[in-house]
Amino acid sequence: MESLKYLKFEPREYQSISAKEALDEIEKGKRLIIILLPTGTGKTKVGELIITEYILKGKLKKQDKILFLAPDRKMKHQLYEVANEDGLSHFGNLFIFPEGKTVPPKMIRKHFKFSKFIFSTPELLFNAVFPRNPRMRKVELEDMKKIKLVIIDEILEVLAQKFGKEKFRVNLRFRPLLEILGVFDPNSTNVFVGLTATISQFKKREILIDLFGGKEKAAEVKPTQTEDYKEHAPAIIVKKFYAFDDFVKGIDVLFMSLNSRCLSILRQAHRILTGSPLEGDRTLLFANEMLKKQDVVKEHFIKRKRGELFERARGYAGAYLDLVVARQMLFEHGLPTLYKFIHSVKNSILLKSDEWNDIIEQLQIRWESPDGIITKKEERLIELLKRKVIKEKKRGIVFCRFVLMTKNLYRLAEAVNIKSTFIHGKMEGVSQNSRINQFKNGEVDVLFASKKLIERGTDIPQADFAIHYGTTMSASRREQSMGRIRSTMKNLKEDITILYHETAEQSKFSKLIEDFMQNVEKVKVEGWTIFKDGEISEK
Predict the structure, then answer these.
(1) How far apart are CA 521 and CA 530, in angstroms?
(2) What φ, ψ does residue 60 adopt, rounded to 5°?
(3) What does the alpha-carbon distance between residue 129 and residue 127 come to, in Å, rounded to a whole number?
(4) How many domains would you assign to the chain?
(5) Tens of pLDDT along 57-86?
(6) Which of 219, 354, 371, 422 is the most exposed place for a label (fewest CB within 10 A)?
């Protein structure tokens, strides 16, 4: 490939093959190319090869632009850095869209106008093109029309969104932006190259293929099973470590008792309103609707001559939502957060129940006891980190679902002299990138990270292990987070989950792993090899 003269890296064989297949599909008139490569196998490199060959073959005019879209600020910075390091600047100026109000709109318009490569998130670009105040527009429409090639990292997250039960559609939030880029115009000559590591999300891929005109206008490029691909394809050892905590187990039993009572009333209310049973994955949504649209819901109850049940159902909907939050705090926050939340609850159904008052009493006893407020799960994590970091001289990532826990666990690790840092989605992109680089450069041994922030697009091969502090939300998100540490057959690493024994958390994890393994079986020819540690357990 002629692009090798200009790029500052030597592509692997399967990367070159994927890029050539993509370019062949573009020659055939395809508008969308989805590059399917598991995490750590170099999707971005394939994108750079496609761009370079596209330019060298004269497919772009001098004034034409190339847009890189990333799902979040952190990935935007990473794409920019990789492109800069790999030599794309040989073909024109690289412009990374600034955040906040640090750069005047006039200056942004100027940089956008003369730059060849633009790096942004959909949200930043949308707000720049469609500001509330037209005088604050940061990008002129005529310059947007010069974008002819779009590289979308984690395209399934950027363009597809879930609604209802297992249904997906194009992300409507950014529709005006997508219209300018020509997504909905079947006659547009703009080309879109989507990169994704989530090879198990079949439905999202189908939505995007249909959006661009079906298989006549869209194609998927899957990895060729070359020897170097087999060497770099992901493989991992999956383990779980239990935390045995009778206190947490007892509180969970009380929560389950209350939860069962709430579900009984909500199911009754749903059947009255709709005539159909309440499905498990719709319970949270239904409870929210009971409170947010209570005037409409009340009217429906009255029409069905069951007005007397409305207030009761509304109270139980509120109780159910409080219980959802409380259980999250029990499993994946610290006891101080749970303690404060329990004492802030105003729901009369909970406050009058024996179980809730028992929970308050047990928390108060624990709060005042010599055991203190450190949970067995936190102790288990610190014990594991001491073994991995201090004894085995390894470095790793700890995934947390909530921002608060990244900070809390960081403090616990620092207290036992484990050099650490933490990142979460509320930080500025520059700060996020700086802390990730701290870990990559060996300045710290443990990176505590919120799952939503780092589970997509951030490859950290410097990590020797990954620990999940609790469960993830879905099998596809588990697939993403497992790939962050670049575990391969050649360099096999551990993916560890710490969870409470004999609790709802354990049940949830078992279902998640079962779903994930089924997805792996469907796509095993394309990537993942999973080594279960016995029954995926270690006590």
Answers:
(1) 10
(2) -120, 140
(3) 6
(4) 3
(5) 999 998 999 999 998 888 899 899 999 999
(6) 354
Nearest CA to 377 out of 345, 401, 359 is that of 401
Query: Model pTM?
Result: 0.68
Query: With the C-alpha atoms ordered 105, 107, 111, 114, is the resulting torsion angle positive or negative?
Result: positive
- Residue by residue, what is the 3-state secondary structure of 288-340? HHHHHCHHHHHHHHHHCCCHHHHHHHHHHHHHHHHHHHHHHHHHHCCHHHHHH
pLDDT in tens, 1-37: 677 788 999 999 999 999 999 999 999 999 999 998 8
SS3 content of the chain, % helix, strand, coil (to 5): 55, 15, 30
Q: Which two tokens stand for residue 27?
A: 């020659």
Residue pair 526/230 in contact by the 8 Å Cβ criterion: no
Q: For position 379, which CATH number holds?
A: 3.40.50.300
Structure tokens at 255: 């929560």
CB-based burial label for 84 (10 Å; 0-12, 13-18, 19+):
middle
φ and ψ at residue 351, rounded to 5 degrees:
-60, -30
Q: Are 400 and 378 contacting, i.e. CB atoms less than 8 angstroms apart?
A: no
380 shares a domain with 364: no
- Among candidate residues 200, 193, 119, 112, the one with its CA nearest the CA of residue 159: 193
How far apart CA 512 and CA 509 sit, in angstroms, is 5
Q: How far apart are CA 229 and CA 199, in angstroms?
A: 16
* Backbone φ and ψ of 208, nearest 5°: -70, -40
Position of tokens 């666990």? 409
Domain boundary residue among 300, 333, 368? 368
Q: How many CA within 13 A on the CB side of residue 333?
A: 18
Rg (CA), the chain: 25
Cα dihedral sign, 524-526-532-536: negative
Find out whether 462 and 395 touch, Cβ atoms under 8 Å: yes
d(CA 424, CA 408): 12
Distance CA 363, CA 365 (A): 5
Cα atoms found within 13 Å of the Cα of residue 443, Cβ hemisphere only = 10
Q: Which of 410, 417, 482 is nearest to 448 (CA)?
A: 410
